[in-house]
Design a protein that fits this description.
Helix content: 25-40%
Shape: elongated
Strand content: 15-25%
Radius of gyration: 20 Å
Order of helices and strands: EHEEHEEHHHHHEHEEHEHEHEH
Number of strands: 11
Distance between the termini: 16 Å
Strand order of the largest sheet: 8-7-6-5-9-10-11
CATH class of one domain: Alpha Beta
CATH architecture of one domain: 2-Layer Sandwich
CATH topology of one domain: Alpha-Beta Plaits
Largest sheet: 7 strands, mixed
Structural class: alpha/beta
Amino acid sequence: MNLILQAVHDIIPQQQINHLTGLSGASKIEQIDAGAYRLHEAKPHTDISSYCFEHRIDYGFVPDGKQLSGFGLVVMDMDSTLISIECIDEIADMQGLKPQVAAITEEAMQGKIDFAESLRRRVSLLKGLDEGALQRVYDERLKLNPGAEFMLARLKEHGIKTLLVSGGFIFFTERLKRRLGLDYTHANTLEIVDGKLTGHVLGDILDAQGKADWLVKTRNELGLKAEQVIAMGDGANDLKMMAVAGVSIAYHAKPVVREKASYALNFVGLDGLVKLFKTSV
């Protein structure tokens, strides 16, 4: 196994690299790029997790020789994963209801309440809002998370397909699909009548099981095995799709998600996904 170390600052101090090399018994230190290192032939140690968290270093034990090109599909959540906001919270802000909606969102992401029920409750609070508020959120507030474009460019270079599955709304996923060149997207549809939100979602709600189902469907259509799929998310409603992927990544995630994931990126950007794996033989 190799121990991959990543930090948001340019260089991890040499004393920290040396300390982690000693803890893991690694045989060689390789710098991947600024702020990312690979410690070869490393072994787990009980102190590595706490030391890395204390020093804001993301780490992961990755099998030697694991290549990015060995994957064929990356499945991503949208809100607070690919993008920095929760779209529904920002839509609610247009109604002066952000605190109420954000509180329900937080409970759902922590797995304290059923996602579908939480979405219905939140959307009901948006009744009567002008549909123009959706475009305002997209134009004025939606931002990609750091490293998103780097990650997507590298995935394209290696022929890896991308699937964006969201408990949010098609209004945003379709725009991101066109903007970023994503291969597949699936999300929920807000009902709009006479230019106003009705407070309802059309059709079945894309919940945690729906995300997992779309991952499996897309994987099968591409003729891939489970180990060729990476799934990444931040909330409890991402756990089912992460469970059916060969590799799961918790991105700046809730504790319940970090505990279940193959790897956790707590500090670095989305480019951290790429740096976990070798990009050349």
